Amino acid sequence: MNMENLKTISQCLTADLTQDRVALHETGHVITMYALGMMDHFAYVTKKAGDGTLGLTEVTDDFKADMQKFAGEITTAASNLHLGKDFTRIVQLSRLESARNYLPNICRLFGGGAICRYYNLPDEAMCSIDYSLIDTLLSGLGMVGKREILLPLVDMYLNTVFVSLDLLTKAIYVNLIEQGTLNKDQVMQIIKDWEEYKLI
Q1: Hey, is 45 helix, strand or coil?
Q2: H-helix or E-strand containing 189?
Q3: Is 60 exceeded by the pLDDT of residue 142?
Q4: pTM
Protein backbone atom coordinates (compact mmCIF):
# COMPACT_ATOMS: atom_id res chain seq x y z
CA MET A 1 0.00 0.00 0.00
CA ASN A 2 1.75 3.11 -1.29
CA MET A 3 0.11 6.02 0.58
CA GLU A 4 3.17 8.25 0.76
CA ASN A 5 3.37 8.56 -3.01
CA LEU A 6 -0.21 9.76 -3.44
CA LYS A 7 -0.60 13.27 -4.78
CA THR A 8 -2.28 15.65 -2.35
CA ILE A 9 -5.54 17.41 -3.09
CA SER A 10 -3.73 20.73 -3.51
CA GLN A 11 -1.40 19.13 -6.08
CA CYS A 12 -4.44 18.18 -8.17
CA LEU A 13 -6.26 21.53 -8.28
CA THR A 14 -5.30 22.36 -11.87
CA ALA A 15 -5.37 18.85 -13.32
CA ASP A 16 -6.42 18.62 -16.97
CA LEU A 17 -8.96 15.81 -17.08
CA THR A 18 -8.83 15.54 -20.88
CA GLN A 19 -5.33 14.04 -21.21
CA ASP A 20 -6.08 10.35 -20.54
CA ARG A 21 -9.49 8.96 -21.53
CA VAL A 22 -8.95 5.58 -19.90
CA ALA A 23 -8.10 7.19 -16.55
CA LEU A 24 -11.06 9.57 -16.90
CA HIS A 25 -13.45 6.72 -17.76
CA GLU A 26 -12.35 4.62 -14.78
CA THR A 27 -12.43 7.65 -12.48
CA GLY A 28 -16.05 8.15 -13.55
CA HIS A 29 -16.93 4.67 -12.29
CA VAL A 30 -15.23 5.37 -8.93
CA ILE A 31 -16.87 8.78 -8.50
CA THR A 32 -20.27 7.27 -9.29
CA MET A 33 -19.74 4.51 -6.73
CA TYR A 34 -18.81 7.13 -4.14
CA ALA A 35 -21.86 9.25 -4.96
CA LEU A 36 -24.15 6.21 -4.69
CA GLY A 37 -22.70 5.02 -1.36
CA MET A 38 -21.20 1.89 -2.94
CA MET A 39 -17.62 2.18 -1.69
CA ASP A 40 -18.06 -0.86 0.55
CA HIS A 41 -18.25 -2.83 -2.71
CA PHE A 42 -15.21 -1.18 -4.34
CA ALA A 43 -12.06 -3.33 -4.71
CA TYR A 44 -9.64 -1.43 -6.97
CA VAL A 45 -9.32 0.68 -10.12
CA THR A 46 -6.69 0.32 -12.82
CA LYS A 47 -5.91 1.91 -16.15
CA LYS A 48 -3.86 -1.09 -17.31
CA ALA A 49 -6.25 -4.04 -17.13
CA GLY A 50 -5.50 -6.03 -20.29
CA ASP A 51 -7.61 -9.00 -21.44
CA GLY A 52 -9.50 -6.89 -23.96
CA THR A 53 -10.12 -3.99 -21.57
CA LEU A 54 -8.14 -0.79 -21.34
CA GLY A 55 -9.02 -0.17 -17.71
CA LEU A 56 -11.11 -1.71 -14.97
CA THR A 57 -12.99 -0.63 -11.88
CA GLU A 58 -13.50 -3.81 -9.90
CA VAL A 59 -16.04 -4.63 -7.22
CA THR A 60 -15.43 -7.04 -4.35
CA ASP A 61 -15.83 -10.80 -4.70
CA ASP A 62 -18.49 -10.74 -1.97
CA PHE A 63 -20.53 -8.23 -3.95
CA LYS A 64 -20.24 -10.33 -7.11
CA ALA A 65 -21.30 -13.43 -5.17
CA ASP A 66 -24.31 -11.60 -3.73
CA MET A 67 -25.35 -10.48 -7.21
CA GLN A 68 -24.98 -14.03 -8.58
CA LYS A 69 -26.98 -15.44 -5.66
CA PHE A 70 -29.71 -12.89 -6.31
CA ALA A 71 -29.84 -13.77 -10.02
CA GLY A 72 -30.12 -17.45 -9.06
CA GLU A 73 -33.03 -16.70 -6.72
CA ILE A 74 -34.87 -14.93 -9.53
CA THR A 75 -34.26 -17.86 -11.90
CA THR A 76 -35.52 -20.39 -9.34
CA ALA A 77 -38.63 -18.38 -8.52
CA ALA A 78 -39.35 -17.82 -12.22
CA SER A 79 -39.03 -21.54 -12.98
CA ASN A 80 -41.52 -22.27 -10.16
CA LEU A 81 -44.12 -19.98 -11.71
CA HIS A 82 -45.26 -22.65 -14.16
CA LEU A 83 -46.06 -24.82 -11.13
CA GLY A 84 -48.30 -22.09 -9.78
CA LYS A 85 -46.09 -21.15 -6.87
CA ASP A 86 -43.67 -18.34 -5.94
CA PHE A 87 -45.80 -15.67 -7.65
CA THR A 88 -45.41 -13.25 -4.73
CA ARG A 89 -41.69 -14.05 -4.47
CA ILE A 90 -41.07 -13.40 -8.17
CA VAL A 91 -42.84 -10.04 -7.90
CA GLN A 92 -40.70 -9.12 -4.89
CA LEU A 93 -37.49 -10.26 -6.55
CA SER A 94 -38.09 -9.01 -10.08
CA ARG A 95 -39.57 -5.63 -9.21
CA LEU A 96 -38.62 -4.53 -5.70
CA GLU A 97 -35.29 -6.17 -4.95
CA SER A 98 -34.09 -5.99 -8.55
CA ALA A 99 -34.51 -2.23 -8.51
CA ARG A 100 -32.59 -1.95 -5.24
CA ASN A 101 -29.79 -4.22 -6.47
CA TYR A 102 -29.61 -3.34 -10.16
CA LEU A 103 -30.31 0.40 -10.43
CA PRO A 104 -27.17 1.50 -8.51
CA ASN A 105 -25.15 -0.96 -10.62
CA ILE A 106 -26.61 0.44 -13.81
CA CYS A 107 -25.61 3.97 -12.75
CA ARG A 108 -22.16 2.69 -11.73
CA LEU A 109 -21.66 1.10 -15.13
CA PHE A 110 -22.86 4.22 -16.97
CA GLY A 111 -20.44 6.33 -14.88
CA GLY A 112 -17.37 5.85 -17.07
CA GLY A 113 -19.06 6.91 -20.28
CA ALA A 114 -21.04 9.63 -18.50
CA ILE A 115 -17.93 11.41 -17.23
CA CYS A 116 -16.33 11.28 -20.68
CA ARG A 117 -19.48 12.78 -22.21
CA TYR A 118 -19.52 15.41 -19.43
CA TYR A 119 -16.00 16.51 -20.41
CA ASN A 120 -16.88 16.35 -24.14
CA LEU A 121 -14.68 13.31 -24.74
CA PRO A 122 -17.24 10.66 -25.64
CA ASP A 123 -15.82 7.26 -26.53
CA GLU A 124 -18.65 4.81 -27.05
CA ALA A 125 -16.23 2.02 -28.04
CA MET A 126 -14.72 2.20 -24.55
CA CYS A 127 -18.23 1.73 -23.12
CA SER A 128 -19.01 -1.51 -24.98
CA ILE A 129 -18.35 -3.85 -22.03
CA ASP A 130 -20.28 -1.52 -19.70
CA TYR A 131 -23.22 -1.46 -22.11
CA SER A 132 -23.27 -5.25 -22.35
CA LEU A 133 -23.44 -5.53 -18.56
CA ILE A 134 -26.10 -2.79 -18.38
CA ASP A 135 -28.23 -4.65 -20.94
CA THR A 136 -28.00 -7.81 -18.83
CA LEU A 137 -29.11 -5.93 -15.71
CA LEU A 138 -31.93 -4.23 -17.59
CA SER A 139 -33.22 -7.60 -18.78
CA GLY A 140 -33.48 -8.59 -15.11
CA LEU A 141 -35.71 -5.56 -14.60
CA GLY A 142 -37.88 -6.43 -17.62
CA MET A 143 -36.46 -3.43 -19.51
CA VAL A 144 -34.84 -5.08 -22.52
CA GLY A 145 -33.77 -2.50 -25.11
CA LYS A 146 -34.21 0.52 -22.81
CA ARG A 147 -30.53 1.47 -22.39
CA GLU A 148 -30.75 4.36 -24.87
CA ILE A 149 -33.72 5.78 -22.98
CA LEU A 150 -31.94 5.56 -19.62
CA LEU A 151 -28.56 6.88 -20.76
CA PRO A 152 -29.51 10.59 -21.00
CA LEU A 153 -31.43 10.40 -17.72
CA VAL A 154 -28.48 8.88 -15.88
CA ASP A 155 -26.17 11.42 -17.53
CA MET A 156 -28.35 14.29 -16.24
CA TYR A 157 -28.13 12.93 -12.70
CA LEU A 158 -24.40 12.20 -12.91
CA ASN A 159 -23.62 15.62 -14.39
CA THR A 160 -24.71 17.16 -11.08
CA VAL A 161 -22.45 14.67 -9.29
CA PHE A 162 -19.48 15.54 -11.51
CA VAL A 163 -19.97 19.28 -10.88
CA SER A 164 -20.11 18.72 -7.12
CA LEU A 165 -17.19 16.29 -6.99
CA ASP A 166 -14.85 18.01 -9.47
CA LEU A 167 -11.91 18.27 -7.07
CA LEU A 168 -12.27 14.67 -5.87
CA THR A 169 -12.46 13.59 -9.51
CA LYS A 170 -9.19 15.41 -10.24
CA ALA A 171 -7.48 13.83 -7.23
CA ILE A 172 -8.48 10.27 -8.14
CA TYR A 173 -7.68 10.87 -11.83
CA VAL A 174 -4.19 12.30 -11.16
CA ASN A 175 -3.33 9.53 -8.71
CA LEU A 176 -4.63 6.86 -11.08
CA ILE A 177 -2.39 8.20 -13.85
CA GLU A 178 0.59 8.35 -11.48
CA GLN A 179 0.10 4.91 -9.90
CA GLY A 180 -1.58 2.98 -12.72
CA THR A 181 -3.69 1.11 -10.16
CA LEU A 182 -5.30 2.32 -6.94
CA ASN A 183 -6.46 -0.15 -4.30
CA LYS A 184 -9.37 0.48 -1.95
CA ASP A 185 -7.19 1.86 0.85
CA GLN A 186 -5.56 4.35 -1.49
CA VAL A 187 -8.89 5.55 -2.90
CA MET A 188 -10.37 5.84 0.59
CA GLN A 189 -7.33 7.89 1.66
CA ILE A 190 -7.85 10.24 -1.30
CA ILE A 191 -11.53 10.56 -0.34
CA LYS A 192 -10.60 11.23 3.31
CA ASP A 193 -8.08 13.90 2.26
CA TRP A 194 -10.70 15.49 0.00
CA GLU A 195 -13.32 15.48 2.74
CA GLU A 196 -10.85 17.20 5.08
CA TYR A 197 -9.50 19.64 2.48
CA LYS A 198 -10.30 23.28 3.09
CA LEU A 199 -10.20 25.83 0.33
CA ILE A 200 -8.32 28.85 1.65
Answers
A1: strand
A2: helix 184-196
A3: yes
A4: 0.86
